[in-house]
Amino acid sequence: MSVATPALESFLHAMPKVELHCHLFGSVRKATFEDLNRRAGSPLAAQEIDGFYTRGDKPVGVLRVLRALDAMLVRGPEDLYRMAIEYLLDAAGQNVRHAEFSWNPTGTVRVSRIPYREAQDAIVRAIRDARAQFGISGRLIAAIDREAGPKAAVDMVEWVLHNRCEEVAGIGIDYREVDHPPELFEQAYALARAGGLRTTAHAGEFGMPWTNVLAALDVLKVDRIDHGYTVVDAPQFAAECAARNVLFTVVPTNSYYLRTLPPERWALDHPIRRMPALGLRIHPNTDDPTLHHVTPTETWARMVRDFGFGLDDLRSFMLNGIAGAWLPEETRERWQADWAAEFDALRARFFAGSAGPGK
Ligand SMILES: [Zn+2]
């Protein structure tokens, strides 16, 4: 495996990208977070904020940062507008052309006390403005907070269905998977599907067993899986997922394996490295870019540097992303042809006469 080169970074920056797994609250710029904190009378000390935005030996759990936003900092729809437009501007600057990003309405409505409709309208306005100003297309995923329980999940899906809007394409589920397996949320997902919403779910994260991925697919009947790493523990089930063309939106910077695998084995034993060899369709994502200190370009670079994938693999990951995105069929087909041609032209320009990086 070769190391990353400036050509690789430039190539990955230039290549057209979709992002399918990113959380609005995990993409807040540090300066914005500090502004919101100041406005609230500085309930969080500067040191604590630095801790939120530090990635290293003693990282503050990302989930705590997200809860702080709900409880202390987000106060009105304009805050959500600002966070969404800044996220989309930053993504567009990385040549992300289509972003499907998650937001947890339950915390916004029940903790920040912003009515659902006002919150949704603000984020949708940011999506429309970003489209007009930066050319990026955006879709919102209303995500169930699994820690709030199944009843709150059904309530949330009802809010979405009562305020239908093209930009809110579907639902997801996140927060702590431990003790909150997918099957608890069957009713919320059935309601969403009956209402014509698309569906995804975080499953098989935090080392939770592959049976959670199975439950997400067979009980919740989701279109795609976020994370899903423990599928590698069950090769026969993995073969089934491959045959069903399930897309896995993976996150190279996910902290579970950073914490649990020895540093010298991390990149070698990481499930992401093994997933494509099992026939699984994967697509790399930032998840919480500002908290993980990562950009879309850097996320793709890690697929080469850390996991040894080559340009042919990256090309297939790019096409997997388009295949799994919640796009109109006509757009999907056009992008698959156009982006593949664009990828090949960039490859010729940046790696002329060489096989390029990776294996
Ligand atoms: Zn996530």
UniProtKB/TrEMBL annotation:
It comes from the Bacteria. Gene3D superfamilies: Metal-dependent hydrolases. One of its GO terms (molecular function) is hydrolase activity, acting on carbon-nitrogen (but not peptide) bonds, in cyclic amidines. Its cofactor is Zn(2+). InterPro entries: A_deaminase_dom, Ado/ade_deaminase, Metal_Hydrolase. Keywords: Hydrolase, Metal-binding, Zinc. SUPFAM superfamilies: Metallo-dependent hydrolases. This is Adenosine deaminase. It comes from Ramlibacter ginsenosidimutans.
